[in-house]
Amino acid sequence: MMGYKPSKKGIPDLETGANLTPMMNLIMLLIPCLLMSTVFIEITVLNVAAPSIGAPGGASDTPPQNDKPPLNLTVTITSKGYTVAGSGGVLGAEVKEGEESKGPTIPIKEASVNCSQYIDTGPVPRDKNRDRKPCTKDEAAQNVHRTFWIYDNEALQKKLVEIKDAYEDEERIIISAEQDVHYEAVIHVIDISRQIKDPASGEVRELFPEVVISPGFM
Q1: What is the model's pTM?
Q2: Domain span at residue 114?
Q3: Are strands 172-177 and 74-78 parallel, antiparallel or unpaired?
Q4: Are residues 168 and 205 in the same domain?
Q5: Whether residue 113 is found in the same domain as residue 190
Q6: I need a labelling partner for 52 at 20 to 30 A (CA). Which of 59, 67, 112, 210 fits?
């Protein structure tokens, strides 16, 4: 007796692939939505360098062959202010005739500060402002001004401009700080020492773009 072989005629083919058209349509709709909702963040990288340490007798110990000695401009941040020094020594603070120079080159000062920049805190150096009430959220929202001890950044930048005028080819500045100095103060000095912007014309002048962090601070 011969076996019966059923006919496939009229039977639908079940081995068909999945229909991906709806999925592809959904993806094509989602791509523009995702691109429109993307937030682009601009990241700025500030290049600073640590002083190189070479082996004794190495090439790094050989002084540069230059008729003009290096300036070795250094700004040291302390709780009392900024001390500016160079190869010629430490620059003293501006004092009246007959008085001796004491303290840092540019001491901290008392000034009115907008509380919108600070919430539940105050400006650096904060150790000098411990006896003063911090700015509150309400004061920050209303742009209330309070008196704090602050670093005289304008005077520091003015001093750096004077040094740049005297040493036009100098590009390096060394920044040092005491151990208890807030990192925020260091960032301010880095920004001040690299360039200055004319508020009237908007022209930017380069001061000391090659910033070196002192190993004592690191």
Answers
A1: 0.68
A2: 109-150
A3: parallel
A4: yes
A5: no
A6: 67
